[in-house]
Amino acid sequence: MSLKNTEVAEHRARIPANAALQDHHVRVRRSRIRPEKIGLYGLLIVAALVALFPLLWMVSGSLQSLEELLAGKSLVPLEAHWENYVTAWVQGDLGMYLVNSITYTLAAVAGILVASSMAGYALARMEFRGKSIFTVVILAVMIIPAPAMFLAQYRLLTDLGLTNSRVGYVLILITSGVPMATLIMRSFFASQPKDLEEAAALDGASSLRIFASVILPLAKPGLAAVAVIQGLAAWNEYLMALVLFDDNSLMPIQRGLTSFDSAETPQQQILLAATAISIVPVIIFYLLAQRHIVKGIGAGAIK
Fold this sequence. Notes:
By secondary structure, the protein is mainly alpha-helical. It has a domain at 93-259: MetI-like (MetI-like fold, Orthogonal Bundle), CATH 1.10.3720.10. 79% of the residues lie in helices and 0% in strands. The protein is built from 14 helices and no strands. The chain is globular and about 70 Å long.
């Protein structure tokens, strides 16, 4: 019993020492914050506020009445008009348009990831005749403005019988995003060491097995970056939809926003509410992809 009491007493005596040691570490960390870092953090905070101001203004305007919004006296609504969101959802048929945009974006991103990862890996690791010419062609396609290709794309879809169809529109989104995504994935694969691939090849793995089991798990940061870039591009696309679709029920979310843009009956507060609704899936998608990018960069730095 005396031995046990002695151990308890020694443990209690160590607690103040440990607490003092922790306080010392905290003071050391705080002392490491230099004045120039404070200025940098202040600059970053200002930049973040500037970037967030349009979003805050949009949310504030969506909760105001039309008279209060046009007056523009304050960012804080005198009374929150949540019915603006209900009106935007019902009058703009946003539910239908959101489903269309989510479907198009997910299908386009999936197709772009599959095509660009395979093409990028081939350009980075395989040697074949015409490889440099193929890379130049990809760069040349990226230089051509998207509206300049609308006529050729529409003619091709007409010959294939895919006009006014979801499949045709998704194929246009995929072909528009593959060139840039391929170059991004090519650069990522080229920066990766070949040791794991050579080890898998010595174990008898085929090229397809190496790509699926070794390369793709390492390519998560690159795939996430491509998903973010091409997902936002597919979500914001509207001009080709106007050219391709005759059926209003096939239109993306941007069509729902234009229903509130009228000079005869201005509904700016409803338009802002509809815009706020339309960006919610984009924010969720970006945050999820951002988490994967940060995790992948951290894993790569540790290795």
